[in-house]
Amino acid sequence: MIALLAVAIPAAAALFISWVRLPRAAVVGVANGAIAAAFVLALLMPQGDLVVGTWLQSIPLGFQVDTISRTFALVTSGVGLLIHAYSAAYMAHDRDLARYFSGLNLFVAAMLMLVLANGPILLLIGWAGVGLASYLLIGFWYEREAAVAAARKAFLINTAGDVSLMLAIALMVTTTGQTTYSGIFAAVGHMPATAVTWLLFFGAAAKSAQIPLHTWLPDAMEGPTPVSALIHAATMVTAGVYLLLRFHPVLAAAPSAAEGIGILGGASCLLAALMAIPQRDIKRVLAFSTMSQVGYMFMGAAVGIGAAGLSHVVTHAFFKALLFMGCGVVMHALGGDERDLYKMGGLRKALPATSAAMGVAALAISGFPLMSGYFSKDAILESLLANGHPWLWGLGVLTAGLTALYIFRMYFLAFWGKPRTEPSHGESALAYRWPMAVLTILALVGGVFVRPFAWFSLTSVVAVVLAFIGFLVAYRLYALRGPVGDAWLDGGFGRLLRSEFGFDLAYRGLIVAPGAALAAAIGALDRVAMSGLASGVTSGGAAIAGWLRGWQSGLTRVYALSILAGAALILLWVAVR
Known about the structure:
The protein has 25 helices and two strands. By secondary structure, it is an all-alpha fold.
């Protein structure tokens, strides 16, 4: 019942906040209190299963608590609580505070349902709820055309993934006759595992922004910055990783498909790191960073090293939430919505605590020794090499160096050098500072909790050396030179990176433009056909009405003649028969 309450309380709070007009302080209190309660309940959850009820008299619906679901529940509610607390300051002056916190509570509730479900049916409900909440929050500032377009794009791509997941569930349920995880996994030999695995992947890739369904994630930065933190650190983007971890027995039954998913995860890992390098928008740097780090998790989940992938989910939540919170403070200090790195610089003097926190997060995501990211990333890389995946190991190690390059490029452009815009605000809000302080500590030492006995290996030495080289390159190019350091990106390679490898352009050419042309053609045909039909019906009806009206003359002799003619025809017909 604890799992049921953990889902029900934030869901009820979301409805309550949206339906009842409350003072602003009460909105914050109810929303944050609900997530705090969910976090406490996640801490208290014992392992086990609970069937709450049945659907269609045969499908048991309930909750399953094990290591995977409990870990995700703790990350979702714990990091989600810190983001809620941070939001109290960040969104303090927004006129739609209740709508914002209602959406935030719905997001957490849906994610908790997704990870605590005991079978794919209830998982699908949580999955859809996460997609709905993301749509509402990415487009929260609906008066901005870019935000509306970003929300629509995220919704459409994720809906494509939803269809893939529904097909996977339908295949599993119809071929095994089971609707719970335990039943499905016991009968995994009866299903077409390869087809199911690929369908699961496309569902997961859409939610977790992996190639080829990743293009919505950078655009989703149009939402409020705390929403970006929640999407990237605690909810939506990690949902795809959960899906692969949860259905590991299915992936294990289709090793070739799982290997293919690992390769796509590695490609996402590397290409996203490259796409992050030239970005001027500070939030887009972090968006591609998330895509890259989730690629590590996909590699781990796909090739059977789920424990390592799960540990990176945890540490990534710490430093990625911290990076987004620091990004929000920077934007607030520069007037509220400044995201151009070329207009920043020198902020370590005006924002010393934020500078230190983001420096720690940058070291953690780069995998520097003894930082949280080092422990989890090294676990994935070491396991990839030990389990016979040298190509994936090579992609992961190369990405480690690129990660340090792009994240410290962002850091030095924002905090070092001379100020290019004078800040108008500082770090006064306590609601900004204490969540960031907690996450800074976790980014520093959190890795010890997920992998306490890690030590240096050949893999870790190579990754650390490459990360250090990436740091040195970023320092040399950007620490003192600022945006001038981007001169090396002026050639063809830089243009390729700025085009983000042409994925959006390809989608517009192959899908959007033909779809729009087809819709226009159908619309024109519809107008012509329906207009012609309507005109034909109208004119035909008018002609018939005119003919009938001619018979209504009001003259008795005409009516008598008509009666005689009708009677004669009837007699003739009877005679012929």
